[in-house]
């Protein structure tokens, strides 16, 4: 008698969840991805905006590119390259000193290859969430994950009370499902209760993130005063780095588009003053002007942009790795994996490794049934 095909719910469609879903589906598991946003990507999402003349501009306003050190990840990325989902970004980068207002340490190419999704960073997640065996449901926030002990399955309930189905395993790739941040924003308890697993709960208490503001700018003409396409800021407590998004391969913007990221210190000052609630339009406008002023003060000859908008990343970068060796948090008794960059390292590669580990644990568990 044939064994029933396992069903897994993946919460979150960032790169960690998307990789996990893809690996599971490739190995015969039926996967449903639940994503509260309108599309896939998480911090790898791409922002599309329409400026006054009707032109479209695009911004990778979270993770602009990624590098690879791990052989398993490189093997996976090579497959993505063959599918034209990623390519190398061969551009110069450097650093600007905010005191001298000069660019220093400029290099043609770094020691590590820089990869980007095509035509956007979210293209990778989008393709993985559309593979055979994966069903992606966007605009759905999971409000509760219930472990049904008598049936030995998970039951997922939407934030609106809708029953989302029962599953043999769960991969939680969005930290909101266990985060106090969920309570701060919604006033409700986090969707996943891990108190029954003290070891897991203790690990999750160690997770912390820093926030960041991203500024999206579009200009009528190329910024000829900038000799590089990506650079960091030295001696600034406002800006951390900047990159020319439209210089990446396969980008569709007709204007020159730049993304700037604030420092952790700047974001902390703003949040301390205004709180963690959803930032208002007026607050984001204020932040946008302050970041632009710092940019123009540091790099001479920057004109007024034809488009400007700020975005806040509340959980931009994890400050610790809570499962560096295991690469994900795992409860074998409930077939529960918790994965993300906060498990391994604060970058795209760390998220990929964590998603792969979560999938392997679930597959090993199903193979033993």
TrEMBL record:
Source organism, top-level taxon: Eukaryota
Residue ranges occupied by any Amine oxidase domain in the UniProt entry: 105-363
Molecular function, one GO term: oxidoreductase activity
SUPFAM superfamilies: FAD/NAD(P)-binding domain
Name of the protein in question: Amine oxidase domain-containing protein
Cited PANTHER family: FAD/NAD(P)-BINDING OXIDOREDUCTASE FAMILY PROTEIN, FAD_NAD(P)-BINDING OXIDOREDUCTASE FAMILY PROTEIN
InterPro entries for the chain: Amino_oxidase, FAD/NAD-bd_sf
């Amino acid at each position: 008698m044939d064994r029933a095909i396992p069903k897994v719910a993946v919460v979150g469609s960032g790169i960690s969840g998307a990789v996990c879903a893809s690996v599971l589906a490739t190995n015969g598991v039926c996967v449903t991805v639940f994503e509260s946003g309108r599309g896939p990507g998480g911090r790898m999402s791409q922002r599309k905006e329409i400026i006054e003349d009707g032109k479209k501009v695009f911004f990778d306003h979270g993770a602009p590119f990624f590098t690879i050190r791990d052989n398993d990840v490189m093997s996976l990325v090579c497959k993505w390259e063959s599918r034209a989902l990623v390519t190398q970004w061969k551009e110069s980068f450097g650093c600007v000193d905010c005191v001298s207002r000069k660019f220093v340490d400029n290099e043609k190419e770094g020691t590590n290859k820089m990869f980007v999704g095509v035509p956007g960073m979210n293209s990778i997640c989008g393709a993985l969430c559309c593979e055979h065996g994966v069903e992606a449901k966007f605009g759905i926030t999971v409000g509760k994950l219930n472990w049904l002990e008598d049936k030995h399955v998970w039951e997922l309930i939407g934030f609106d009370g809708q029953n989302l189905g029962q599953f043999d395993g769960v991969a939680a790739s969005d930290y909101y499902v266990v985060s106090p941040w969920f309570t701060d924003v919604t006033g409700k308890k986090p969707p996943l209760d891990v108190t029954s697993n003290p070891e897991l709960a203790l690990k999750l208490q160690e997770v912390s993130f820093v926030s960041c503001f991203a500024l999206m700018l579009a200009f009528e003409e190329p910024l000829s005063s900038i000799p590089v396409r990506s650079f960091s800021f030295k001696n600034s407590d406002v800006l951390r780095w900047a990159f020319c998004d439209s210089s990446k391969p396969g980008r569709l913007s007709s204007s020159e588009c730049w993304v700037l990221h604030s420092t952790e210190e700047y974001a902390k000052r703003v949040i301390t003053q205004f709180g963690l609630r959803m930032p208002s339009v007026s607050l984001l406008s204020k932040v946008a002007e302050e970041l632009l002023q710092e940019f123009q003060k540091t790099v001479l000859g920057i004109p007024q942009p034809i488009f400007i908008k700020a975005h806040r990343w509340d959980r931009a970068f994890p400050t610790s790795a809570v499962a560096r060796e295991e690469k994900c948090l795992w409860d074998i008794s409930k077939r529960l994996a918790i994965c993300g960059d906060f498990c391994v390292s604060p970058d795209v590669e760390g998220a990929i490794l964590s998603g792969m580990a979560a999938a392997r644990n679930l597959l090993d568990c199903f193979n033993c049934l």
